[in-house]
From TrEMBL:
Keyword Transmembrane listed: yes
Transmembrane segments: 46-67
UniProt keyword list: Membrane, Transmembrane, Transmembrane helix
PANTHER family membership: BSR5223 PROTEIN
Protein's organism: Xylanibacillus composti
UniProt name for this protein: Membrane protein
The keyword Transmembrane helix appears for this protein: yes
Superkingdom, taxonomy of origin: Bacteria
Length: 72
């Protein structure tokens, strides 16, 4: 597969993810999973979605594995 096709598929994938994100975040609670770090103090708030990052990393790794498997 050449680079132009890869970029086209990546762009289409990002558009689809961007369109589905508002609906998926309501049902999947992405960004508010147990284990995400949230610190709220007076005049200061810090949020780091570490578990959400791990879940997304695993999902994206599986997707890329499946895509590579189909492209053989």
């Amino acid at each position: 597969m050449n680079m132009s096709k890869l970029l086209i598929f990546a762009g289409i994938g990002l558009i689809v993810i961007g369109l589905l994100w508002p609906f998926a975040s309501k049902f999947l609670h992405l960004g508010r999973l147990p284990g995400d770090i949230a610190i709220k103090k007076e005049g200061f708030s810090f949020y780091f979605p570490i578990v959400t990052c791990l879940v997304l990393s695993v999902v994206l790794s599986l997707v890329t594995y499946v895509i590579r498997w189909f492209m053989k």
